[in-house]
Design a protein that fits this description.
The protein has 257 residues and is α/β, with parallel strands linked by helices. The chain is built from twelve helices and nine strands. The protein has helices at residues 30-45, 67-70, 75-81, 84-90, 108-115, 142-150, 152-161, 167-172, 185-197, 201-216, 219-233, 237-247; strands at 6-11, 14-19, 51-56, 97-101, 104-106, 118-122, 126-128, 165-166, 178-180. A six-stranded mixed β-sheet has the order 1-2-3-4-6-9, sandwiched between helices. The protein has a three-stranded mixed β-sheet with strand order 5-7-8. Helix 1 (30-45) links the parallel strand 2 (14-19) and strand 3 (51-56). The mean pLDDT is 97. It binds hexanoyl-coenzyme A.
Amino acid sequence: ADYKYIQVETKDQLGLVMLNRPKVLNALNRQMVSEIVQALESFEQNDRIRVMVVYGNGRAFAAGADIDEMAVDNPVSLELLNQFTEWDRLSLLKKPVICAVHGFALGGGFELALACDLLFAAEDTKFGFPEVNLAVMPGAGGTQRLTKLIGKTLALEWLWSGEMREAGEASRLGIVNKLFPKEVLIEETIKYAQMLSKKPPLSLRLIKESVSKAVDYSLYEGMQFERKNFYLLFASEDQKEGMNAFIEKRKANFKGR
Ligand code: HXC
């Protein structure tokens, strides 16, 4: 596909998506969001791809939704536009998605990062939800995902103030998986993604699905769900391969079936 605001590439079994509107700090206009979702969905459909990575070109990961584009909106135009169904498709991806951020991860950019599975950050990253300063609020899951991660009072304080916080603090709050010096962020993220791509894909997939149920199911229902997924993995060739390789003291080679 021909994309205008992103660049897409594959590397071994990884699918890489680079946000590419560096002049405006990768401000997410609607076409760009649509391209990101399309690119990830096409990696999802591609049997050779096992792990996806999203990152940004230039000075920042993304400084939020495109304010120029939003400035003229009204509730009816937003309702008719129905842009968030596109964002919702991100949560339907079953393969691991790692987001690697640097510079700024603000507003919609932060929401995009929180919609991914793992968040790796350069030490220079500033995180925040500046929407309040524009007299609006997050709309792509920010209030929900942030609160589930850090709890109500911390989330409220951060969202109300609209302040930017350093990567180190975001990491202490449990939002960031790994912190790297800026120069090696992408290289280290790819290294990690390569490691993950050697793991049995069906396990990764059903672990992701089960963990996400822990967020919205009761413990009992979540455990029933986990159990079914556990049983299901015993129908895979990879389960036999993984266990036989252990018994035969050799390295397993997983096929994803
Ligand atoms: C449109 C943006 C932008 C944005 C930056 N730019 N962020 N354009 N939408 N969100 C543009 C600037 O206008 C400028 O263009 C260029 O990018 C470089 O930015 P500067 O401001 O010159 O850089 P700097 O002084 O380093 O300041 C960086 C910054 C600041 C602190 C990140 O750009 C900033 O405050 N940006 C807006 C952040 C924000 O409010 N985001 C939330 C948006 S609301 P020119 O042409 O002047 O060079 C949102 C809601 C999501 O995300 C709802 C769900 C989708």
